[in-house]
Design goal:
Order of helices and strands: HHHEHEHEHEHEHEHEHEHH
Distance between the termini: 24 Å
Radius of gyration: 19 Å
Largest sheet: 8 strands, parallel, barrel
CATH class of the largest domain: Alpha Beta
Strand content: 5-15%
CATH topology of the largest domain: TIM Barrel
Number of strands: 8
Oligomer: single chain
Number of domains: 2
Strand order of the largest sheet: 1-2-3-4-5-6-7-8
Structural class: alpha/beta
Length: 299
């Protein structure tokens, strides 16, 4: 069935974008900022917090990067204006990391200044492995100047446990996720068990060091194991939260919320929705099967 699902992902990728968008809407708030504001308001009404993300990455010019910065600043303004319980996530390559590191630092510093003014927080997303080291370097440099910044780590990378040992000493605020980019076998775990085991190993050292962590997963097994670790170690609720992607496993989302744990939903939006949506399908090819059935359904 996995092979069939992967074939279906390939099929979905050659569909016209307007067709794909019909189904991508499950994973994104929309194209406009007002779409994301509407979604976050609805989540907040259920006691769920959010992080908003302007989709896009790996820009090739400073002009594009500066435009992305303006969009991030507009998000922070909208959060403040609408009284939303949300912070901001951003991708460093969208803000110029691959163009000029110093330029990228200045771009994100401006965003963090605005967030600080609003008493808000910014999460620096982790992208594919060629940027991992530079992203940590960027985060650590920013952290010397700003307290309202955190970073993402990916459990499927073999380097992550060692990275976290170093980052713990800096009091890093984390989002811990499995990881979604396709990486070489020599640097990444490939089996479900390996990724799960490393996720829990990394999570345990974060909790032991009392670093704040966003436990980002849709895996029921990992959620239950995280529950166990939190209870076993008597971790205060102000030291962690659970995080999930918009549109995925809402039954699990509702359970975590009902169990009284803080839950943050990643709410992406913007013109660059296509690459994000295809990656979601590659991560969960079974969803591509549901899409294909919907396309050919006459009911």
């Amino acid at each position: 069935m996995k092979a069939i699902n992967n074939l279906i992902v390939g099929f979905v990728k050659v569909l016209p974008k307007p067709v794909v968008f019909i189904f991508a809407k499950k994973y994104i708030a929309g194209v406009k900022l007002e779409d994301a504001v509407r979604v976050v308001k609805a989540l907040n009404s259920k006691g769920i917090v959010a992080t908003m993300d302007v989709l896009g990455e790996a820009v090739s010019t400073k002009e594009e990067s500066e435009e992305a910065k303006k969009e991030c600043l507009m998000v922070l303004d909208a959060i403040n204006k609408n009284g939303l319980d949300s912070n901001l996530s951003l991708k460093p390559t969208q803000l110029g990391l691959l163009i000029d590191k110093g330029f990228c630092f200045n771009q994100i510093s401006e965003i963090l200044d605005k967030a600080k003014e609003y008493k808000n927080f910014v999460r620096i997303d982790m992208e594919d492995s060629p940027t991992t080291g530079d992203t940590f370097e960027l985060h650590n440099k920013l952290k010397k100047k700003f307290s309202n910044v955190g970073v993402v780590v990916q459990a499927y990378l073999k380097r992550t446990y060692e990275d976290v040992q170093k980052q713990n000493k800096l009091g890093t605020n984390y989002r811990l996720c499995k990881g979604i980019y396709i990486e070489p076998e020599e640097i990444s775990y490939k089996t479900r068990k390996e990724v799960r085991d490393n996720f829990l190993k990394v999570l345990e050292t974060m909790l032991d060091n009392r670093n704040y962590v966003g436990i980002a997963t849709h895996d029921d097994y990992l959620v239950n194991k995280a529950y166990d670790l939190i209870k076993k170690k008597n971790i205060s609720k102000d030291k962690f939260e659970f995080q999930m992607l918009y549109g995925i496993k809402e039954d699990l989302r509702n359970k975590i919320n009902a169990d009284g744990y803080k839950l943050r939903i990643y709410v992406p939006f913007g013109e660059h929705w296509y690459k994000y949506s295809i990656r979601r399908l590659q991560e969960n090819p079974q969803m591509a099967w549901y899409i294909t059935k919907s396309i050919f359904s006459f009911n």
